[in-house]
Each structure stands twice: as structure tokens, then as C-alpha cells.
Amino acid sequence: MTIDPADARSAGLSKLRALESEAIHVMREVASELERPALLFSGGKDSIVLLRLAEKAFRPGRFPFPLVHVDTGHNFDEVVEYRDRRAAELGERLIVAKVQDTIDQGRVQDGYDPSKQGSSRNQQQTQTLLDAIEEHEFDACFGGARRDEERARAKERIFSFRDDFGGWDPKNQRPELWNLYNGRLRKGENVRVFPISNWTELDVWQYIEEERLELPSIYFAHEREVVRRNGMLYAVSPFLQPQDGETVETLSVRYRTVGDLTITGAVESTASTLQDVVTEIAATRITERGETRADDRVSEAAMEDRKAQGYF
Amino acid sequence: MSAAPDHAPSASLLAEAGDPAGMPALRADLLRVATAGSVDDGKSTLIGRLLYDSKQVLADQLEQVEQASVRRHGAGAVDLSLLTDGLRAEREQGITIDVAYRYFTTGDRSFILADTPGHVQYTRNMVTGASTADLVIVLVDARQGVIEQTRRHTFIASLLGVRHVTFAVNKMDLVDWDEDVFRAIETETTRISTQLGIPDIHVIPISALQGQNVVDRGELPAWYPEDDDHPTLLRHLQTVEVSTDRNLTDLRFPVQWVIRPGAAGDTSGGRWDADDLHDYRGYAGQVAGGVLRPGDEVQVLPSGVRSRVRRIETLDGDLDVATAPQSVTVHLEDDVDVSRGDVIVGADEDAEAITFRELEADVCWMSDRALRPGARYLLKHTTTTTVAKVDAVLDRLDLHTLEREDADGLELNDIGRVRIRLKRPLVADPYLRDRATGAFILIDEGTNDTVAGGMIR
Ligand SMILES: Nc1nc2c(ncn2[C@@H]2O[C@H](COP(=O)(O)OP(=O)(O)O)[C@@H](O)[C@H]2O)c(=O)[nH]1
Ligand SMILES: [Mg+2]
After folding, report:
1. Does residue B15 belong to any structural domain of this protein?
2. Partner-chain contact A152 B87, CB within 8 Å
3. Using a CB-CB distance cutoff of 8 angstroms, which residues of chain A are in contact with residue B156?
4. Do the Cβ atoms of A9 and B23 come within 8 Å?
5. B329: containing domain
């Protein structure tokens, strides 16, 4: 049983389908080899893609894992609404792990100080995530990180092992050969798994378009009150108020990533449809993190350092 | 790392980089490429050049690299290698330590580039990068010609079953684009590749630093004329045909996950145990070889039970045909007992011939703890993990002479041939027949580390 080599090219997979197939394979391996996985779902575009991939991997069965959101409390309302609705539509269990609870229990100090510019709960998320992993005894967490996001990520394995404290040791990673993943854990270890490691930002957007995935409305152009800080546009909210000398402007903006609203910048845009957004992204000259994430602009190795401490 | 030479593109030139990348076609296909070469042959510079000249470097990344270049080499020059060296230790030491993955798209092809380090002590990283590569670029420094590392990297590419090897003869600017230098390297690399049985090789002269013949041709001598037989490196990568590299002959479908919404193991409350799903039983997995079609007569190994393919299901609808590496869900006509680790193969297949209780394999050893005969490991092959005992180390490859020599063990970064006995038989193929069903990893049960990658002979 052979097929004509001439047909092989047409039988070959497009890039998106090849990446999709790889991601589905990764998800099924985790479900098979690990006891208690979870899928980190923020309501952001990468985790929305993960949800679709989970449907592709496991339907018509249930997902063999719950969804987990690590919630800083500083959310866009539109994203929280989307998160809850999407979980309900899928009929899957959603666990919300709140940074506020971690703070209330005195386990971390709130990094967010309304009077301090640029302060956020970004660091505290790590503790809340580690607590959730411990409480629910998760041994694997799916995340939507991509290697094209940042240089330290470019070196991270698809199966990224973390020690008891959640730390990542870049110099001591397991070799990852072919599509053979070794998911065996040492005591106290757990693994973060990144099924879309090999996707670029544009792949994600094109996949969303091809699959007609719904996104939270803040990904599309809308009018919003913003202030300019360090070259970024931040939404004015109860958690982020204009400071002396700053003026509030109402601009047409959209978001390129969705995170804690105190550190996620908006971009000026009038792209109101998915197609417009994809066109804008394809033409952009600035990376996603550079344009919208204050947390990664601190130093050359900001991400590498945060990952060593247990950050996603 | 040496200071950036003065032909490096100037910061201001980079700042006014041209048009944004166009929108890649949705039907773009994917080429996985690994680069190999000795330290300082220019791998990182080449990848930086590919990304930069194909306009895939965005302004803030460039700004970061510009600032880092100034810190390292002083004002005026941009060191493109800093685009890929991502870990702090790598930037500090100016070397590539681990496999770095980079992504770019031009026209209707997308590339995943694995930049692997060159030293002998990083052989395992090159093996890792090459394991998934369709094509390996072996860098050769024009001034040095073919050296031991060139032979070793070419050998590893062939061992890993890579069918397309491209020799990029770099730093041609430093030999004034001397044709004789290039021809000598061309002859020697061709000879080595032919000896190793690599089916498709190309030798292309470039200067990664000056950007000649990488993405743009630039000014090239008359002996490398502008025609189809003398492509730029990128042009070659864009046109190399790899879709027929897959095994499209021997059907192999290792079952990865059984979907049974009505079964006890599935905790589906509410909507997923609807009546119509009560008898649902789908075998999910990734096609590893051959062509799968509804109606095909198949057998399930190791049990040997026969049935027929009823449906090939995906969330997007049923398929008429599936090939590697598609992830699909297979339904059989008969209610047979199939579980993870079973392999669906064609009905005509001689089951005995593809069932291994013992195997000979080339392995690359990846652990500080040496392999000694008699040692026990877990062996993971497709979706099966079984206990394996290494009965004998048959030989070890001298990575300098590429001669096989007697050995009583394998150390970190050694490549050698071993004989392995399996507790549970495997449905497998020789690696060169099907990479997906011929590859395995060994796992140390004590540490859970992956200690070797193996290729069945
Ligand atoms: N003259 C010249 N120098 C080059 C060329 N390619 C790379 N280099 C230089 O060679 C050195 C090593 O390059 P690098 O990319 O770090 O090599 P790697 O160790 O293989 O990644 C650097 O100083 C580069 O600027 C080239 O085509 N011509
Ligand atoms: Mg390098």
C-alpha cells in the first residue's frame, strides 16, 4: 500500500496542521503518563488555543484534567466573563486559585502598591501556582508558553521539569529526542508542559482565525481610558490610577496579550475583526512581550531569572 | 568570542531595516533544520543572518541585540549571534550551550531551526537537534576546510537518518572567495556524504557575517553564477523536497490513548455519557508510518487480532486518508480489546518480522553515569515503555577517526552499538526504514533521567 510520491506533497501537512498534530500528541502523552495533570487557563489567546487542542485530543471524552486559573485579582472583566463562560460551555471543571488568598494567608506580601508605579502581583502568582499544585497534587501543568516569546524560553524543553520549589535549571534539562517524551518524575518534582512550544505568535493568531475561535473582546479595537507610562499604554482601572502629571486619554486600543491589567500594555489600533488583527500582527515590528509586558523589560535575563524561581 | 569584525552591519543600517514580513500563506509547509559546526564556525551568526535578512527580527529584539553588542564589542557593529544565544551563561561566555530553537517563515515555507553547539562534549545536543530534523546544515570554515568535526557532524546526521545535508562553506570573505578553496571542500564533503549514503547533499559558499549568498546573493564571483544550480542557502532551504521522506509504505499506528466516554475510567459527568456515546471506543494516536484508510484490513499487535478500519475520526470530521505525522482517532469494525502500546499494522504484515524481543541499536549516551553491560533501563519506544537489559556493548565509535572499536561501556557523549533484551516485545522497524518506529530512549529507573537515544539497526 503506497501512495504516489507526486501525491505526497498534497498529502503532506500544512504547517499549522503539523504543529497541531504535534501538540495533540504531547497532550495525549501527558494524559497517559502522568497521574494528575491540569491545564492553566488564563483566558488569553494561547490558553484558548490549548483548550481547542484539548478538544481535538480528547473529545468526545472529557478532558482528563481540570482547568486552573491563577487569578491576581487584577483582571479585565471581559476576560473573567469569557473564562467562566468558556469553561461552562466545555462542561469542564475550572479551579480558580487566587493570589488574594495567598496574601490573606500571609504566605506572600502583596507586591502591588497603588501608590507605586509599575508594581504588580506578578511575582506573587508564582506562590499561588505552587500552592495550587500542592493542594491538588498536580504533577503536570499545561501552559501556553512559546519558544518565540523570549530567548530563555527558546531553550526550554516541551516537558520542563521543576524542583520542589518550582525552579527551572536550564543547564540540567533532559534531552528531548524525536517525539519520545520522558514524563517520569522524581519525588517532589512536577512538570510544566508546553504543547505549543514550536508555535509563533502569528501561528497562534492564524490558528484562531482558521478554527474560528472566540476571543475575549479586549483583543479587538475598543475605546478605553488609558495613561502613557514608559512608552506603554495602560488601562485606567481601580487598580491603576493616573498619577501626577499623567493625563487620561481615550483611545482606540486592543490587547496583544492578556495578563494582569496593571502590567499589560495596550496597543493603539482600529483592528476590529480577527482578520484585521492578524494583518496588523503580521506587519508589526515589535515582539509581543516587548510591546505589552512591562515585566520582561527589566533586564536581559529577566525571564530566565523569574523562571529559575518558579515562574511559569 | 572574538570582537565583531568591522564588516558587521552597522547599528544604524539595522535600525532602518526594510519592510515587515509579509503574511505567510496558510498552507505553508514546515521544514525542520538543525545546524552543526564547530565553535566559531559561525552558526549563531548564520541563524541571526537568516532571521535578519528575511526580516524576521523585530525592532525591540534588534534594539536588545544592539545594546548587548555595544556592551560586548564597543560601538558601531551589531553581533547577530546574540539573537540566538539566550541563556546568561551563553552570552557571558560567547558560546552556545544548549539547543536553541528559532522560527521563521518566508514565502510558503516555515522553518524551525535548531542551533546546536559544536564541541565533542555537546554531541548529545547535536543528536537531540538532528533527531527531528529534515535537513542538517553543516558549517565548514572556509579557512580550515574539512576537519574532524565536519566528518563527525556529517556522520551524526547520517546516523540520525537525516536525508538532506547542506554544507555551508562559511567565511568565504576571509579566503577572498577563492574558487579552489571552495572546490576542494566541495569534493571532500561530497565524498564523505556519498560514503555515508546520504541521499541528498548540497554545498553552498556563504559569508554569514557579510550576508553573502545566505538570503540575498550579494556580489558573488563568476564561478557561482546566478542560476537554479547555484542557489542562495535560503533558496535551497525553500525548495528542498522532503514530503516523500516519510515512510508511506508500512502502516504503523501505535495506540496512544483510548477514548471511551461511557467507560468507568472516564469521569464524564453530564454531557459526555450521552446514550449515543455508550458504545463509543476510539483509538487515538499519531500515524507513525504508511497510509491509513477506512476499509483497510488491519491487525492489532501484539495480540494479532484482525479487523477493519471503520472510521478515521478527527474533531474536524472523518478523513479518507491519514499519513504520518497526523494525530487521529481510529475506529475498528469489531469490538476488540486494544490499549495503549498496541500497534495497528496492515493485515498482510508478517507480525513475527516486526516483533522484536531483542535488538541491536546504535545509541548516543547522554548521562554522566556510564553504561556498563548488564545494566537495566526503561526503554520508551513509540507509546510503549518496557524494561530493557543491555546485554552487551558491541563497539564504540571513535568520534575522532569514526572507526568502530571494542568497548566495555559507553561514557557521556559516546556513540556505540549495543545489544538489548526486552521484557515486553516491541513492534518496531529498523530506524532507517522508519524513524518514528525505529527510535527509542533509555531512562534510568533510579534517577528518571533520559540517558540515551537509540536507533534500531
Ligand atoms: N569574516 C567572517 N567572520 C564570521 C563569519 N561568520 C561568523 N563570523 C565570526 O566568527 C565568530 C564566531 O561566530 P558565531 O556565530 O558565534 O559561531 P558559532 O560558535 O558557530 O555559533 C564571530 O566572531 C563571527 O563574527 C563570516 O562569514 N565571515
Ligand atoms: Mg553559537
Report:
1. no
2. yes
3. none
4. no
5. 252-349
Asked if B392 and B416 touch (Cβ cutoff 8 Å), the reply is no
Alpha-helical regions (H) of B160-242: 179-196, 233-239
Instruction: Evaluate whether residue B9 is within a structural domain.
Output: no
| Mean pLDDT (chain B, rounded) | 87
**What is the model's pTM?**
0.90
Topology annotation, domain A14-204+301-308 = Rossmann fold (3.40.50)
Do B182 and B287 belong together in one domain?
no
Q: Quick one: pLDDT band at residue A120, thresholds 50, 70, 90? A: confident
Is B128 in Cβ contact with A176 (below 8 Å)? yes
Question: How far is ligand 1, taken at its centre, from the CA of residue B203, in Å?
Answer: 19
pLDDT at A82: 95
- Cα separation, A287 vs A294, whole angstroms: 13
A173-222 pLDDT, tens digit each: 889 999 999 999 988 889 999 999 999 988 999 999 999 999 999 999 99
Is residue B89 domain-resident? yes
Q: Would you call A193 helix, strand, or coil by DSSP?
A: strand
Instruction: Name the residue facing A14 among B27, B64, B439 (closest C-beta).
Output: B27
Q: What is the CATH number of the domain that holds B372?
A: 2.40.30.10
Residue B189 inside a domain? The answer is yes
pLDDT by residue (tens digit) across A8-51?
Answer: 334 457 899 999 999 999 999 999 999 999 999 999 999 999 99
B205 Cβ contact list (under 8 Å, min separation 6): B142, B169, B172, B177, B182, B213, B220, B224
